[in-house]
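Dear colleague,

As promised, here are the two records you asked about, laid out in our usual form so they can be pasted straight into your sheet.

NAME FIELD: protein one
SEQUENCE, THEN STRUCTURE:
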Amino acid sequence: MPIYEYKCEKCGKAFEELVRNASETPNCPSCGSNEVAKRMSAPASGSSGESDPCGGCEYGGGKSSGGHSCGCGCGCCH
């Protein structure tokens, strides 16, 4: 089952929902409204098999050296 991102049109809350059928529309977990819009999101990518989670990041670091906050999208910034 895929996880979809939604945003409530009533209260503005963004949330993710595991949905069995793509035509199903969940209710907002914050206010209960059914006025939600499906949002576009980037698909998850598979692992490259590298042990360093920041292997391709130009900033280096990663979890093993305390991490960093470069915002490069490499997945190691926390």
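NAME FIELD: protein two
SEQUENCE, THEN STRUCTURE:
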Amino acid sequence: MENKLTRRVKIQPSDADCNNYLSYPDIFALFQNMAVDHSEILHYDQSILTPKGLFWVTSKSKVRINERPKQGEFVDLSTWPEKPDRIRGRRYYCFEKDGKRLIEAATEWAIIDRNTNRLYMINQLYDDNFEFYPEKLLPEPFSRFTAVYAGEPFAEYTVRSIDIDFEGHMNNVAYIRALIGLFSRKELEELDPKMIECQYKNSCYEGDKLLWYRVDNSEGTELCAKLEDGKEIFFAKFEK
């Protein structure tokens, strides 16, 4: 089986932001789409998992941005899984152009058994003779979000029908779109994140109101989305 999937993609107008660069949310969207395509090749995509009562979840992700491609440019997008432990695994992604690495990312993922609401042993997905692609990206541990997110929220967002995936909860990429949309064009240019890290803690659903809190520190900007009852849903960090 193909342990690493690489495809040449063109940055389309719908992928670009107001400055004509690949938008931050569409970085995550292209990674998600490639992961789905690769899971089909490896025969553990959702069409295989759903009849078994299983579904994918991504719990953490981080993206390092060296350079964002512009609309109309062609880039080589690659993805590959790391050998998982019993219940969790990592998947890696990168954008390259003319041999230069523009963006690289890592996600942590798992599979939930909806019948038991427990984690499924993902190491069962692979044959014993499957050869994993050896390269590892962003090997440092994912961040722990320990700031105190209190006081008045700086923004609110109501989850809409367009944010919901087939499982009925807010899609991972929809969190990023909502988050980026909280900032003005000028604010995003000032933030200019070179590293974006996210943690998906709990699910939310159509009609839920997300209250967004922000903490600025020496490393960058941390953000937390909570429900009105204080339940923490999503964390993010921007670093320059």
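A couple of things worth noting about protein two: Residues 5-125 form a domain with the Thiol Ester Dehydrase; Chain A fold (CATH 3.10.129.10). The chain has two domains: 5-125, 155-239.

Best,
R.
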